[in-house]
# Entry
Amino acid sequence: MRKQITLGLLLVFCLSNGFGQSIQDYLLASKARRENNHKEALVYYTKLTETSEYNGDHWFKRGSEQVWLDKYEAAIHSFAKAIEYKSNLKFSHYLTGLSYAQLGEQDKALVHFEKLIELDPSWIQTINTRKSLSGFRDSSAGQKWSPKRDSALVGRNAQWEADLDFLYQTLVKSHYNAYVKNGPEVWNEHYEKLKAIIPELSDHELYLEFMKLTALAGDGHTNIWPISNGNFKFKMLPASIYPFEDGFYVKYAPEQYQSIVGWKVKRIGGLEVETIFKKINEFEGHENLMHRKLLSNVLMVSLDILKMLGANGDQTQMVIEVEKNGKSAEASLKPVPMDYNSLSSNHTNTAHWSAMNENSETTLPLWLKHPDKAYWRQRLSDSATIYFQYNNVLENEEHPFKEFCKSLFESIESGQTKNLIIDIRMNDGGSTPLYSPLLKGLMAHQGQLDNLFLIIGRRTYSAAMNLATDLEYWTDAILVGEPTGSSPNFIGENKIFHLPYSGIRVSVSDRYHQRGASSSLDKRVWIAPDVYVGLKSSDFANNVDPIMETITRYLSKADD
# Structure
């Protein structure tokens, strides 16, 4: 009662002193901004900066609304306050430069663009391509724009050297902490060696060496993938090779190579498969062993990488050696254009690919039924258990996630659902804020559940890694499966830029993810399951899901 009286008196005090109106202004400003009502949002953010002058975020949002309304002079003043309070520094400098450019004050625009590039060189791409900045680029100030591609630079080697310098500088400046796994001496040594051998390497070999330099950052979001673009045409062996508990197997392959699907891989191009797995490590940044296993699906069949590692073969064929039931066989695979999307899928919808489990007499297990759906659920035969597969932290416009979760928790409130199984073993991320309805709902309703299970695995990554971390801490979920593909605290995000001459696409991570529940002292390389259950080749071939078998076996015994 005393607490209620105190809160009531505080509310009266706030209203009488105008603070209540400030709260109302904040809520209305946020609502108008979400609805893209720029005029109304500007009214309320103006009020907020008058009553809460020291909030740099309010000043930034006021300035951004002014930009939307072409009020560039006023926006410059707002962003100056945001910069003073170190709020949204990159965007504040960018939008200040853009505002000056729209006012025709290109020299002042250049000042802010240069400050922005000091903070994050990857913004060069935006400044050099944004249509609204064409006037700046054509101006005398724009001609001084040092990060622009130097059209006078000629010669293949000189251009590759310029790209190498740009890549190195941009990675180090843009990355959250490029030296977290390899110190500057390692980076500098690699850079100097690579610069010295540029004349000796082909363009494709240099592309792969740039991959290795980028991989020094040591995280999965900072990378260059061997994807065909421009002058680069990468090839792959037409096979999906998966590391099961009992070895590397051909999981999928086109119909013409159906005879080796389901066979264990021993050598590729004369190289032992275990040796290949160890050596491909240097081409891509990785979080841990499980993440390496995930990446191997693409890297182990990259023709260009295999050749750089010393595999025998050429652009027309490469031999793969396999074994099954004590018998050995060889197949000559004809390389095809690299298809990263195909290799990343489960091939359930890929035409003319044979699957390791296609001859199984049993139906597909739940985790393979709808890999193309971001989220879906099914009530199991015991009627008290719901299986919920969450494959991407994305929104399905036809069935919004908030509504999906609402109906899920209504079934728990009604007593219809006593056991909930959440499967994120196939979830490699999306947008972290989108899973909040699930997290909040579980925190509120887990007391009404008899059992809560979370299935994790090597592909549990990025935004899904954040979800796993939150659920591990805030709920009583029993974790089952493999370790996750990332650590609880990790460097992430994909910020994209392109090298000026070669056009190589580069992704760099500029954010450190640490969930509110996770301590900075948490140095685990992954979240390990409470109950480890791996997947053997025979399990997959026979459509057996040992994880769900483990969970349902426990539930059936618990009911006895």
Summary: The chain has four domains: 20-143, 156-217, 235-355, 366-488+524-559. Residues 156-174 form the longest helix (19 residues). The CA atoms of residues 133 and 410 lie 51 Å apart.
